């Protein structure tokens, strides 16, 4: 059997070996021939069965070498291909990551650009940037902290600064009037495109009617329109939205003479609160009163120019009319002129009574709104618009006044005349305003063909109405579960982060200037203008009073190791043990030192309030001065690692120094004194509060991340981060504590909840953005 097998092998081998020997070319060698391994193992390497001649043996050896080389080559090629593919994959991932980072940066920059004038788009842009950061590739290979912080800062600014909640954009021409239904569930607007459109509160278009004129509502909640008859300007027609004519007020209009064909013959038509009278303001200087059945009751004469506005008082006892003769007139329902109000230097375009009928607001061509008592007393003048004021309205709860202007803005005012906020966003003049019945939403109609809806209750989120006067100090407990505030009203108040008042600590007889928790959270220290430092338990129990200062105590602080308390006032700094034992005074700390802080290692104290600030060891050895270049140092903060000091001063910037006093950089951007500075717990961000009414967030390298405004323009006093770094708190002179969430996921939820109706229902939203918030929980 073996001989037969050998003969078979030899018949296959010999011709190939001879051909290779004759040609001497590698191509004649075997490579994948299945008999090669048999010949190699069973013949060539066998001591008893090697029948090969020299040519055959060499052929087999050379074939095996060739196969080995081919195998190595193939493995090399395969490995090269694999490495190439891996490289391409890595390059592809890098390219994808860079593309995502580019998208994040573009969205973040677009949001910043849109923040001043296009709030909704700014929020959408910042949400898109934040959502892109949550892409798996960027979660696995995170971009630089700077970009992440910039996105968070812009989203923070957009979420907390936004007021525009939706935009109704279906009209193709200027919007002339807008109203809410009595239940607040529907909004109607008329336009120069001769249509009346009705939306629900979510922004879904429900009705579209070909109607001219203006729109108003009845107590039953029906929308009606009034307009001059198309064939006869002398008549006013009142119709349902479906076009059904309900009533014609014959000869209620005024046909202008040929010399003034442009005159709008009827300027305003309003129903009385009881729906039993209709008042018509005419271009001939008259006001007509009609019954709803079309019967003329009487004509009120007295204005010498067009009557631009007419309104009934909510109690139904008076009528007010405003005219191009620059006056406001008050009338009894029987037509008796009560009095004329003088004061405007331009036409009076709009009037509004407060819900209690005790205040009348008049909006004028002279760029102002004036507030009057019904007895004619001028209460005040609201100044701020820089063009004609076209509309004014009181909120139904009587707490706010809104004004609209040709300057494309809407302004919100307190009833005492204090400007609360300016709403930007319209690209054309704003002609009409309407509050929702619950006072939580304001609608504005503009020549830019849009109606904007502004949520007003957002101003209440994140605000703790803490004290009756200035809030001088605020502090978080170490576990983030409590906030302490100190006020000029002589009290310390303890709050939950949701704004719930836990308790009030009373005992000081003068302004409480500073409050702080001990590192273990078991003690609270307060410093007061009554010359005392008091130590409290969080349950409100007074532990002890530290006496020794001869003047106001402006600042108190625990050392980070909890072993010491420092108090400062009028240039004197005292060190105490937590048990109340006095240690000693620090000498030569400057006559005006009013703010102090321990270094993170508890070995040094820095002071502010003097020129310059000082850094000193606990034994009184001066380490270095903290220069502010001729300006008072108002605030000082150590970075958590102790490697940097931030100074706020009486100039519009903050300075960063090394602990040895070496200057690092200035952070410029404020417009007034920097009252307070703070580092985030991770040391990556710096917050500054300024007299200019803003709080700014900075990167440690000096890059500005965000500018945050409180809900008023009041000076910001103190700013600080929560121990977990997820919240920012600051105080102002209006008695409020403002608490904003910095957590990116929470900001995403809040931003998406705000913008959801706009994304889902606005016809002009990009399809790529419409599903931006689909995976964000409500």
Quick overview:
The chain has 778 residues and is α+β, with helices and mostly antiparallel strands.
Written description of the protein model:
It contains eight helices and 56 strands. It is α+β, with helices and mostly antiparallel strands and 778 residues long. The protein has four domains: 88 residues, no CATH class; 67 residues; 292 residues, YVTN repeat-like/Quinoprotein amine dehydrogenase (Methylamine Dehydrogenase, Chain H); 280 residues, 7 Propeller (Methylamine Dehydrogenase, Chain H). The chain has a four-stranded antiparallel beta sheet with strand order 1-28-27-26. It has a four-stranded antiparallel beta sheet with strand order 2-3-4-5, with no helix packed on it. The chain has a four-stranded antiparallel beta sheet with strand order 6-7-8-9, with no helix packed on it. Strand 24 and strand 25 form a beta hairpin. It is flat and about 140 Å long. The relative contact order is 0.07. About 1% of the residues have low confidence.
Give the overall silhouette. Answer: flat
> For the record, what is the CATH homologous superfamily label of the largest domain?
YVTN repeat-like/Quinoprotein amine dehydrogenase
CATH domain topology of the largest domain: Methylamine Dehydrogenase, Chain H
> What CATH first level of the largest domain would be assigned?
Mainly Beta
| Helical percentage | 10-25%
CATH architecture descriptor name of the largest domain: 7 Propeller
Which consecutive residue ranges, at least 5 long each, have pLDDT under 50?
258-263
Spatial order of the strands in the main sheet? 1-28-27-26
Question: Whole-Å distance between the termini?
Answer: 85 Å
Structural class: alpha+beta
Q: What is the count of structural domains?
A: 4
Largest sheet: 4 strands, antiparallel
Q: Whole-number average pLDDT?
A: 85
Strand element count: 56
Q: Please, how many helices?
A: 8
């Amino acid at each position: 059997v073996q001989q037969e097998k050998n003969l078979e092998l030899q018949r296959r081998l010999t011709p190939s070996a001879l051909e290779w020997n004759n040609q001497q070319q590698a191509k004649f060698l075997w490579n994948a021939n299945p008999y090669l391994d048999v010949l190699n193992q069973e013949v060539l390497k066998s001591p008893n069965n090697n029948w090969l001649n020299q040519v055959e043996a060499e052929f087999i050896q050379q074939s095996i070498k060739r196969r080995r080389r081919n195998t190595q080559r193939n493995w090399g090629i395969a490995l090269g291909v694999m490495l190439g593919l891996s490289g391409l994959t890595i390059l592809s991932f890098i390219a994808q990551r860079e593309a995502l980072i580019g998208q994040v940066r573009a969205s973040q920059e677009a949001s910043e650009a849109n923040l001043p004038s296009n709030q909704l788009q700014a929020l959408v842009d910042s949400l898109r940037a934040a959502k892109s950061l949550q892409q798996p590739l960027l979660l696995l290979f995170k971009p630089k902290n700077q970009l992440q912080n910039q996105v968070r800062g812009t989203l923070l600014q957009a979420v907390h600064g936004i007021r525009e909640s939706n935009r109704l954009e279906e009209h193709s021409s200027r919007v002339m009037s807008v109203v809410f239904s009595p239940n607040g569930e529907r909004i109607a607007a008329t336009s120069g495109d001769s249509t009346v459109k009705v939306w629900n509160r979510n922004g879904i278009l429900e009705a579209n009617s070909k109607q001219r004129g203006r729109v108003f509502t009845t107590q039953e909640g029906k929308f009606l329109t009034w307009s001059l008859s198309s064939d006869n300007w002398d008549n006013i027609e009142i119709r349902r939205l479906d076009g059904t004519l309900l009533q014609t007020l014959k000869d209620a209009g005024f046909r202008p003479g040929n010399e003034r064909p442009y005159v709008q013959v009827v300027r305003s038509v309003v129903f009385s609160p009881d729906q039993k009278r209709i008042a018509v303001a005419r271009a001939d200087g008259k006001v007509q009163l009609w019954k709803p059945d079309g019967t003329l009751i009487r004509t009120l004469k007295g204005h010498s120019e067009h009557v631009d506005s007419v309104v009934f008082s909510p109690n139904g006892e008076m009528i007010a009319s405003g005219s191009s003769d620059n006056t406001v007139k008050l009338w009894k329902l029987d037509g008796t002129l009560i009095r004329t109000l003088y004061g405007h230097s331009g036409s009076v375009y709009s009037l509004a009574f407060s819900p209690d009928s005790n205040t009348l607001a008049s909006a004028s061509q002279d760029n102002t709104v004036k507030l009057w008592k019904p007895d004619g007393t001028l209460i005040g003048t609201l100044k701020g618009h820089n063009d004609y004021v076209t509309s004014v309205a009181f909120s139904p709860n009587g707490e706010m006044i809104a004004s609209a202007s040709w300057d494309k803005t809407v302004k919100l005012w307190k009833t005492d005349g204090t400007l609360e906020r300016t709403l930007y966003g319209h690209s054309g003049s704003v002609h009409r305003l309407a509050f929702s019945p619950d006072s939580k939403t304001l609608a504005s109609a503009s020549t830019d063909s849009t109606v904007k809806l502004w949520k007003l209750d957002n101003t209440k989120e994140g605000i703790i109405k803490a004290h009756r006067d200035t809030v001088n100090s605020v502090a978080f407990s170490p576990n983030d579960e409590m906030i302490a505030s100190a006020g000029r009203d002589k009290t310390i108040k303890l709050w939950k982060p949701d704004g719930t008042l836990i308790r009030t600590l009373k005992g000081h007889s003068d302004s409480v200037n500073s409050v702080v928790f001990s590192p273990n959270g078991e003690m609270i220290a307060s410093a007061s203008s009554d010359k005392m430092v008091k130590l409290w338990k969080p349950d409100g129990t007074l532990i002890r009073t530290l006496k020794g200062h001869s003047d106001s105590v402006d600042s108190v602080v625990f050392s980070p190791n909890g072993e010491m308390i420092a108090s400062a006032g009028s240039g004197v700094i005292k060190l105490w043990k937590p048990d109340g034992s006095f240690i000693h005074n620090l000498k030569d700390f400057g006559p005006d030192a009013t703010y102090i802080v321990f270094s993170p290692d508890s070995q040094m104290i820095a002071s502010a309030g003097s020129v310059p600030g000082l850094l000193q060891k606990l034994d009184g050895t001066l380490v270095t001065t903290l220069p502010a270049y001729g300006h008072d140092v108002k605030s000082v903060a150590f970075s958590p690692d102790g490697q940097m000091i931030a100074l706020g001063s009486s100039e519009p910037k903050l300075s960063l120094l090394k602990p040895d006093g070496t200057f690092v950089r200035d952070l410029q951007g404020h417009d007034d004194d920097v009252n307070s500075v703070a580092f985030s717990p991770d040391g990556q961000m710096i917050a500054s509060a300024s007299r200019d009414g803003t709080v700014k967030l900075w990167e440690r390298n000096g890059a500005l991340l965000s500018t945050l405004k409180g809900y008023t323009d009041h000076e910001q006093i103190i700013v600080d981060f929560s121990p977990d770094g997820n919240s920012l708190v600051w105080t102002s002179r209006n008695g409020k504590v403002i608490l904003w969430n910095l957590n990116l996921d929470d900001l995403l939820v809040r931003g998406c909840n705000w913008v959801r109706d706009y994304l889902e229902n606005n016809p002009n939203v990009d399809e790529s953005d419409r599903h931006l918030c689909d995976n964000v929980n409500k």
